[in-house]
Amino acid sequence: MASTYLSRTLGTPTNAYKGTLSYWQKAASTTATNYILACESGNERMLFYMAAGKFQAGLRGTSSPPDIDFTISGTPRFRDPNAWYHVVLAWDSTQSTASDRMKLYVNNVQYTWTGSGTGGVNDIPQNHVMPMNKSGLPFRIGSTIGGGSYFEGVMSHIHFVDGTAYTPSTFGETDSTTGEWKIKTDPSVTYGNNGFWWLKDTNAATDSSPNSNTPSIGGTLTKTEDCPSNVFPTINPLTYSTTKWNLEYGNLKTNGLASGESAAWRSVYGTLGASSGKYYFEMKVTRTASDPNNFRVGIIDAEQMKYEGDNASFINESRGYGYQGTNGNVVNGGANTSYGNSYTANDIIGCAFDLDNHKIYFSKNGTWQNSGDPTSGATGTGSAINLATGYTYLPAVSHYYDDDRIEFNFGNGYFGTTAVSSAGTNASGNGIFEYDVPTGYTALSTKGLNL
Asked: pTM of the predicted model, to two decimals?
């Protein structure tokens, strides 16, 4: 949702003292200030946001009831770049106990607000008309009212309720098998006049509640297969090398070196891995420097994914396997073996790794290199190299120059904000790719890991 927001102007509320915001988020940045909710007009406002992985809020009232201006924050940090978090902000200013007037839950756990600045949660007056449900105030999801400060990541199933302070169990439930908190895709909710349900399995500007409170869209919403029910990997922003690159589009694109960094080999890694099964992903080279082939794409054992120094590449590791743009060779442990064609800007590289038969295959623009046949099983026809057994493997890419750019499609059906042009066949039904997914393979996702 970077540089994108949803907004509408509130009408007459059913109850200006009570309400709920429930939504699911997968934040891309662990360091930026991510604005989630903003309602503001003159001296009256409500801001709800994340800063360095901590949820915070600021609330300001008008002169009647008396002005309040404070920041409230929870102590834990929610910075797992692969996790969808269910967040519920519920308020009821009619409560006699001040600390009950605004509650925060994350994955069905309530967190205690602590005060900072000039006040705290206990300074919300009883029967205060809350700005996030006041007639005539602009209501925005994904940025401040003035814009320029945005939520970096993806959101899904955004419920706003006018008149009821719900608990998380209305919108989620505990999985009886795994014990994990999971989404209710069709909860029973009384929305009230201003209530809505945005981003229910779509990126369209629609309201899935019984109301017709559709939003205006600022910027462009990009649809993603990644959702609370099926998590896809992204680039892991917490590794050493990744901090040296600027990441965009939900951590699916590298966009040049971070400020102050110089050219060097550095690797980025996916946030999901597997030790068995058959998986497919795509990487597109979207821009190159004057030396146009400095790219390596493949997989690495999770144990060898490390906080490495500069001028290192995952293919130097004994269980790092990559297809090299410069000469089309496959590289493992620093050793080059002749394999396929070179690749450069606008080429799409497919990677199919068979962890049941310990083989890996690479395609260039839909053509399997070395006459490879990923469906050949133990025969390994045209396989790039045999994989070491007994390890968990993650997607990996290395590149060198500031002008280098790559974009991943782990199954979302997009490179950056551009949808795949043709959408190849995929018998698993899991993920959308530019080219055909080999029979028996699927996207590396939580659903794919459990097929």
From this structure: 0.91
